[in-house]
Write a structure and sequence with these properties.
Elements: E1 3-9, H1 16-29, E2 34-45, H2 51-62, E3 68-72, E4 82-88, H3 95-108, E5 116-126, H4 133-141, E6 147-152, H5 157-162, H6 186-195, H7 202-213, H8 215-224, H9 232-241, H10 244-247, E7 254-259, E8 266-270, H11 273-286, E9 292-294, E10 301-304, E11 309-317, H12 319-324, H13 326-342, E12 349-359, H14 375-393, E13 397-404, E14 413-423, E15 442-447, H15 457-460, H16 479-495, E16 500-503, H17 508-520, E17 523-526, H18 539-544, E18 550-555, H19 560-570, E19 574-580, E20 585-590, E21 593-599, H20 600-605, E22 611-616, H21 632-639, H22 649-652, E23 663-665, E24 668-669, E25 675-676, E26 680-682, E27 691-698, H23 707-725, E28 732-739, H24 752-773, E29 777-783, E30 787-790, E31 793-796, E32 800-809, E33 826-830, H25 841-845, H26 858-873, E34 877-882, H27 887-899, E35 902-906, H28 918-923, E36 930-934, H29 939-945, E37 951-958, E38 962-966, E39 974-977, H30 978-985
Helix pairs in contact: 2-3, 6-7, 11-24, 13-14, 14-16, 16-19, 23-24, 23-26, 27-30
């Protein structure tokens, strides 16, 4: 009999989460007679616990005696009107249950047999709308992709408890391997690819067919006892390795680019966007930047901080999983990028996370397409997932932003970044950024076990989201298991026990072992040795599953015993599953039989190069102007409430940005912590002044006008944020993350050639900006199929580029925050404001386009940035804030909110081109500008440093809280208070 323990808050204690759900049901479903909800945490044990053991478990582990009560094998209360229980589906990772098992075995001093499963019980008091129970469950209480629900009433509660079923995964004694016959003809091959979710084109399937038709291949296979046709293990391995997600086929394609916006049409052949504009850019810069240690060769880029320490940097996306399960997708996203950093070189310790999200508007009120979750639910789930991943792992979330646009309704964009530090050298003299894998080294799988979760993640993320998207691609990460693994591997690194490691990300063992085998020249693994969450997985599922918290580690034979002993000390699972070889083949066995044998030359070099055409078309955009509003004060207050501009304090405060105790400049600043910071500054080494600066830039609104300018604006925004906080322009690096709608022309995707041309333009713009700023790109990622389709409905994201930056400042005491510091300080505007209103938040608020969109003047800006940095090094800057969304007026308002100090500024004093109205001067989003404050006694020295730049003294910080911008006439004055500004700023996002 199943032993069931329920724990809930005592009736006298408030449950804010239950109250919030009650309010949502009352508001959204009209259940006004429903007056109370109680929640109970349920833990079910497959093998019955004795009464005594169950009492110990309930009282010491599952229940807090101060504010909770528990009961065994019956409801926590019997006077409810309706009950709904939410639990995981079979095979879904149950992290809480895993933790409970460890705690129970510690408390009882014995092993717990059988499964442990957790769920949540909701007891409803009052009239429950039973006819809408399904809708309430699926839209509010659970995600049907990974969770199941059941309902009961007091009348059938006893029967429900007696027959309670557990979400056990199906079991079979041993997995099976099948031969996959490759049919004749392109259409039949395409159907096979679609059926198995291989995400391979007909041409790629033909290349596979050719390989298996070779006499040499047939001879080898016969010798090994393999069938002539590929096994399912092999076909899945090839699909994973050749996926867009892993091979970046579009970025490595041959592209014939035609620019039809010019006469005559400009034509260019590009052999690889990556090699030409990304790696090529860094290669041109690298000679001048000796701090670059590992670029585009590893899981993350690695730069030197100084002679003793190095910094690993990576940013990833987890878009499609987050569309299906926002919490799980975001959680696995942040944990995955943590592992990328841990798996760089010989292992770096993650010291910070970043997050940048792109959602549809949270107040979206139109009918949702099938399988699309409401944007607010996506927002809440993603936020909770990243919070859980960072907070539970002890890694601070220090920098991020949120962008809102309804093009992200079909797929949200979830960018997760991590930085980590490692010593430059080990005690034995080895450089930590260099990996070595020699034949004979043992292959260890470390961390979590393998399940069905995450199967087809690599191929799934290489196609659009649609009604057939598989639920198996959804995963749930476990920060607890990953933290144990991280601590173990960092000590293994310091002891010199392993020679290389990488994470089991997209493609699982297929990817990690397949990639590492290139260093030695081959590998052989034994799939039956891999630890499984439950029996019955087929060999191909074991090989490509992306179950989380796993690393693949190369350990020299002489170190294996100590490596295993160290794993036991930490409580980490480390399993020897094979060895690296020099045979030239990747081989997998299952219970003594070969189920996979692929030549590395074919697996990694056999993918046919894509040949694509990109055509840039003229796009007519209606230019719109509107008369200057009568009241610019109300315009500013309204702008501060725009979703892209408004305060994200309620979100930021749910992340732990203090853990590890390194923060100098944090996400929020000022006397009350209400002002937004431009970048983060960390001081990672105790007793040393070296600082690390983290910033980013993202400007997708402008891609609809020109993706070249959008990319340069993203680079420039990241650079401005970095410079404004004190970062050194001589010691910096950037990451590029492209998220694009499908850029491959087809019958279903008729504007694919134009989207590809936009991708070319964005790469060109980014490369030109990075070259001019001497800013090396060290790592990146692309996500190329960010579309949703269902019947005639198609939703494609705006072409979006995130630039993440990180660099070094020699003295973190020189870091500068955005908040006004002292009355009497002089306010300066740096950079010239141009009439570039198109795409601005101000024009969006008025639902107009504007005339010209912002363009970046690289030459002027770089001079300004270097001079501003020079002034900061001299300690002349009291406060600095870059000008971006909302223009100078919003920048001044944010500085005032942070410092809780007022100001008087003259609009006419702001450097600007002729013929501009006051609202255009105040709300234009021209790139390359800052607002800074200077002590009066430092003004002369500051102005001398800035003499070859556009700048002007525009006003002063005052002791009160009055906020005044003098306009050309009374109607264009802005007169308000800091309190009123802050109230508007915090009004929009409060959850």
């Amino acid at each position: 009999m199943v032993r069931r323990i329920e724990a809930a808050l005592k009736p006298d204690f408030a449950d804010p989460k239950a109250d919030a759900i009650l309010q949502r049901i009352r508001d959204d479903f009209g259940a006004t007679s429903l007056h109370l909800i109680r929640r109970a945490n349920v833990c079910s044990f497959e093998k019955e616990l004795s009464e005594a053991d169950a009492t110990v478990v309930a009282g010491q582990i599952l229940c807090d005696p101060v504010n909770q009560q528990y009961c065994l094998d019956r409801p926590i209360d019997t006077f409810f009107n309706y009950a709904i229980e939410i639990g995981f589906r079979p095979g879904v990772k149950d992290n809480v249950a895993d933790t409970i098992r460890i705690a129970c075995e510690d408390a009882l001093n014995k092993k717990i047999e059988g499964g442990i499963y957790t769920s949540t019980l909701y007891l409803f008091y009052g009239e429950f709308p039973k006819r809408r129970a399904k809708e309430i469950c699926e839209k509010l209480l659970c995600n049907p992709l990974i969770e199941r629900y059941s309902e009961f009433t007091p009348l059938n509660a006893r029967k429900y408890y007696l027959k309670a079923s557990l979400p056990k995964a199906g079991e079979q004694a041993m997995g099976k391997t099948l031969a996959i016959k490759l049919p004749a003809g392109k259409k039949a091959l395409e159907r096979l690819s679609k059926k198995r979710l291989l995400a391979l084109t007909a041409e790629e399937m033909l290349e596979i067919k050719k390989h298996y038709a070779k006499p040499s291949t047939k001879k080898t296979r016969k010798k090994l006892g393999l069938p002539p046709a590929p096994t399912d293990v092999e076909i899945e391995c090839i699909a994973q390795t050749w996926s867009e997600h892993c091979k970046h086929k579009i970025f490595n394609a041959q592209i014939d680019y035609i620019d039809k916006t010019q006469k005559p049409h400009k034509r260019q052949r590009i052999n690889s966007l990556f090699k030409t504009y990304i790696a090529g850019t860094t290669q041109r810069i690298e000679v001048a930047q000796p701090y670059l240690l590992s670029v585009f060769e590893d899981n993350a880029g690695i730069i030197a901080i100084d002679d003793e320490w190095a910094l690993a940097l990576k940013a990833e996306t987890h878009n499609t999983p987050s569309a299906l399960d926002p919490y799980g997708g975001a959680l696995t996203g942040i944990l995955g990028v943590n592992r990328d950093v841990l798996g760089s070189g010989l292992g770096a310790k993650p010291i910070f996370n970043t997050d940048v999200f792109c959602f549809a508007h949270p107040n979206y009120d139109k009918k949702l397409p099938p399988r699309i979750l409401h944007p607010k639910r996506v927002f809440e789930g993603v936020r909770a997932g990243v919070e859980r991943g960072g907070n539970a792992s002890g890694i601070p979330t220090v920098n991020g932003s949120i962008v809102f646009h309804d093009s992200y309704l079909g797929k949200p964009l979830v960018y997760c970044g991590t930085g980590g530090i490692m010593p430059r050298r080990l005690a034995d003299g080895r450089e930590t950024h260099i990996k070595r894998v020699q034949a004979g080294a043992r292959i260890f799988m470390v961390g979590g076990k393998i399940g069905k979760d995450g199967i087809h993640g690599a191929t799934f993320s290489s196609i659009e989201l649609n009604e057939a998207s598989p639920t198996s691609a959804v995963q749930l990460g476990d920060p607890f298991t990953q933290k144990i693994m991280l601590d173990f591997l960092l000590e293994s690194r310091d002891k010199g026990l392993h020679s290389a490691l990488t994470d089991n990300g997209a493609g699982g063992l297929s990817s990690s072992v397949g990639e590492m085998s290139q260093m030695s020249g081959g590998a052989q693994i034994h799939l039956e040795k891999c630890p499984l969450k439950y029996p019955g997985l087929n060999p191909w599922e074991i090989f490509v599953s992306e179950s989380q918290e796993r690393m693949t580690v190369a350990v020299p034979p002489q170190n294996c015993e100590e490596f295993i002993s160290l794993a036991k000390k930490f409580g980490a699972e480390a399993t020897d599953i094979g060895e690296f070889t020099s045979t030239g083949n990747l081989v997998a066995n299952y219970h003594g039989k070969t189920v996979l044998c692929l030549p590395l030359e074919f697996l990694h070099g056999g993918l046919p190069k894509m040949k694509l055409t990109a055509i840039l078309q003229n796009k007519k955009i209606h230019s719109e102007t509107f008369p200057i509003p009568n009241n610019l004060t109300s315009q500013l207050l309204s702008l501060l409430q725009m979703p892209d501009i408004c305060s994200k304090e309620s979100i930021v405060r749910q992340y732990d940005h203090e853990v590890q105790g390194m923060g100098v400049i944090k996400p929020l600043c000022g006397v009350n912590g209400a002002g937004p910071s431009d970048a983060a500054v960390l001081q990672p080494f105790y007793g040393r002044r070296t600082g690390i600066v983290i910033s980013h830039g993202i400007c997708p609104r402008f891609s609809q006008y020109d993706a070249y300018d959008m990319a340069q604006l993203a680079v420039d925004e990241a650079v401005r944020n970095y410079i404004a906080t004190g970062g050194d322009p001589r010691h910096w690096a950037a990451l590029d993350n492209f998220c694009w709608p499908d850029p491959v022309q087809s019958k279903k995707n008729k504007d694919g050639a134009h989207k590809l041309a936009q991708l070319v333009r964005a790469n060109q713009g980014m490369a030109d900006a990075c070259l001019h700023y001497n800013l090396p790109l060290v790592s990146g990622k692309d996500s190329m199929k960010n579309d949703y389709s269902f019947g005639k409905i198609k939703i494609s994201v705006l072409p979006t580029l995130l630039i993440s930056m990180c660099g070094v400042m020699l003295d973190a005491r020189r870091a500068v925050s955005t908040d006004f510091k002292k009355s009497g300080d002089i306010i300066y505007a740096l950079g010239k404001t141009r009439n570039e209103m198109r795409g601005s938040q101000y024009c969006q608020m008025h639902e107009k386009e504007g005339k010209e969109h912002p363009k970046v003047n690289l030459h002027e800006n770089y001079i300004l940035y270097k001079n501003l940095h020079h002034a900061m090094q001299k300690g002349l800057i009291s406060a600095a804030h870059d000008v971006s969304d909302g223009g100078i007026a919003v920048t001044l308002a944010e500085m005032a909110i942070g410092g809780q100090l007022g100001m008087h500024v003259k609009c006419a004093s702001i450097p600007h081109e002729g013929g501009m109205r006051d609202d255009e001067i105040l709300f234009s989003e021209t790139a390359g500008r800052f607002i800074v404050t200077i002590k009066a006694q430092d003004a002369g020295e500051f102005e001398k440093i800035m003499q070859d730049c556009e700048f002007a003294k525009i006003g002063n910080v005052i002791s009160g809280t009055q906020f005044v911008v003098g306009g050309a006439n009374p109607s264009s004055h802005i007169t308000t208070s800091v309190k009123e500004l802050e109230s508007a700023f915090k009004k929009t996002i409060t959850w």
